[in-house]
Amino acid sequence: MALRFAQADGQQWRTGMNSMPVFPVATPQAFYAQLQAQQPDLATGKPDPQKLAAFFAAHPETAAFRAWAKTAKPSASFATDSYWSLDAFVFTGPDGARHAVRWRMAAESADDGAAAPANDPDYLAADLRQRLSRGPLHWQLLVTLAGPGDPTDDATKAWPADRPTVDAGTLVLDSEQPQDSGPCRDINYDPTVLPDGIAISDDPLLPARSAAYADSYLRRTSEEAHLPGSARPSAQARPEAAR
């Protein structure tokens, strides 16, 4: 889930969240090594099990993610998934007090246990349209405050479940628009674009995400500009890639 909150004074809060509670690795270097290990073998078309085993042996920090992945089901609906910031950020209050936080968007729609269709690559989009035809969808923005000793620089480690959580509001989704021409397409959802009062933490993944998203944005918009029937990227969106 990617969101942009626009304030009246022109400041923005952008966030890109994932439907998993922890990340496999803690650093950009380890993530690059993971991608290399997952490259399909030319002979089999699948990742080499020995390379994967060697990677996991060298990166025990992947244990929490791997445990989650063993029981996680493929998503049957965007509406019933919750989404995590993964990285930590720092909120500063009016009194100047700083608080390390993570947040998540918790779905209000209950998971009905339905299995993801096996042969429909667009079932999530179709399900979203169908659900919206029956009414708006809701998520609660829950902000968790770190306790003493909770890591802010390691997205592989979940914070204890008893940490204080603040209900910061409700996200209401009441309509959908095409991805190739809608208003979200030309936005770089860089998670380091933040308003006053919110700052990045010492998590090394955040600056790496910012750089990767900028490069991805430039590549994506340059390719889309040449697709038949695709609306050209809006002029005002172009400078975002420099952020």
Overview of the structural elements:
With 243 residues, the chain is an alpha+beta fold. It has one domain: Catalase core domain (Catalase HpII,  Chain A, domain 1, Beta Barrel). The protein has 5 helices and 8 strands; from the N terminus they run ββαααβββαβββα. The two termini are 20 Å apart.
List strands and helices in order, with pairings.
Blueprint: E1 2-6, E2 12-16, H1 28-37, H2 49-58, H3 63-71, E3 83-84, E4 89-92, E5 98-107, H4 123-134, E6 137-145, E7 165-173, E8 198-200, H5 205-224
Antiparallel strand pairs: 1-2, 3-5, 4-5, 4-8, 5-6, 6-7
Protein name: Catalase-domain-containing protein
GO molecular function, one term: metal ion binding
InterPro entries: Catalase (IPR018028), Catalase_core (IPR011614), Catalase_sf (IPR020835), Catalase_SrpA-type_pred (IPR024168)
Give a brief outline of the structure.
With 243 residues, the protein is an alpha+beta fold.
Q: What global shape is seen?
A: globular
Order of secondary-structure elements: EEHHHEEEHEEEH
Give the biggest beta sheet.
Answer: 6 strands, antiparallel
**Tally of DSSP helical segments:** 5
Q: Say which CATH homologous superfamily is assigned.
A: Catalase core domain
Instruction: Determine the CATH topology.
Output: Catalase HpII,  Chain A, domain 1
Tally of DSSP β-strands = 8
Broad structural category: alpha+beta
The CATH architecture term is: Beta Barrel
- Our estimate of the beta-strand percent is 15-25%
Give the end-to-end Cα distance, rounded to a whole number of Å: 20 Å
By CATH reckoning, the class would read Mainly Beta
Low-confidence stretches: 233-239
Helix content: 25-40%
Tally of separate domains: 1
Return Rg in Å. Answer: 19 Å
The overall average pLDDT, rounded, is 91
GO cellular component, one term: cytoplasm
Region (Disordered): 223-243
Family: Belongs to the catalase family.
Protein name: Catalase-domain-containing protein
